[in-house]
Amino acid sequence: KNEVEQSPQNLTAQEGEFITINCSYSVGISALHWLQQHPGGGIVSLFMLSSGKKKHGRLIATINIQEKHSSLHITASHPRDSAVYICAVKRGGSQGNLIFGKGTKLSVKP
Amino acid sequence: ETGVTQTPRHLVMGMTNKKSLKCEQHLGHNAMYWYKQSAKKPLELMFVYSLEERVENNSVPSRFSPECPNSSHLFLHLHTLQPEDSALYLCASSQVAGWATNTGELFFGEGSRLTVL
Questions:
Q1: Would you call A42 and B88 a contact, using CB atoms and an 8 Å cutoff?
Q2: Per-residue model confidence as pLDDT tens digits over A17-66
């Protein structure tokens, strides 16, 4: 079992729908990242959070440290949101590189 | 544009070839990373350089050889690769604190898509 699990693996939505992608992890962490990977391969960091909630435009990320769970929400989804969304966690401790989930492939239809 | 540039974007090589992947970052970061992304698998960390010193080598076969000549440049030298090495190779950079704690987010390049015939 991976230390970072994402659900769903694949998600198809209609333009305008509210989208939720989930991430659960099994290790102690100091931070959690949400990343976006477009079909060309490049990866962009969306959020880094260690508690609570962050918002950037139509994107909202939340984390519950006690439950070891994070969600990424997209409001008013658009075809340009189509991408793979990757959750990654940084283990607690002095040196901890990221542990990645397998990603959620989102396709938003017009 | 993330400030991290990788070349080439696509590379096809035979099993006996020697080639190199190049990564350059213009962000003033002091840590650079090589990741491997295979189909349907999570990103795998290969190498980490912090302050130009290799601090992590995740059991990567010796046919992959990294080089970090300065804090802005990172290379991955490839020789006698196998078909299963075909993957997307991603470079990233970040700012690392004095005792090698990654305090910030990662900035990724666009990746180099490698096909080994």
A1: no
A2: 999 999 999 988 888 999 999 888 889 989 989 899 999 999 999 999 99
- Number of Cβ within a 10 Å radius of residue A67: 8
Q: What's the pLDDT tens digit per position in B60-102?
A: 999 999 999 999 999 999 999 999 999 999 999 988 754 444 5
Chain CA centroid to CA B72, Å? 13
Residue B86, number of CB atoms within 10 A of its CB? 17
Quote the CA–CA distance of A81 and B110 in Å, as a whole number. 18
Mutation to test the A interface, candidates B106, B107, B110, most A Cβ within 10 Å: B106
Number of helices followed by number of strands (H, E) in chain A? 0, 11
The encoded tokens of residue A110 equal 């017009």
- The CA distance from B20 to the nearest CA of chain A, in Å, is 19
With beta carbons under 8 A apart, name residues in chain B contacting A4: 42
How many DSSP H helices and E strands does chain B contain?
0, 11
Cβ–Cβ contacts within 10 Å for residue B87, how many? 19
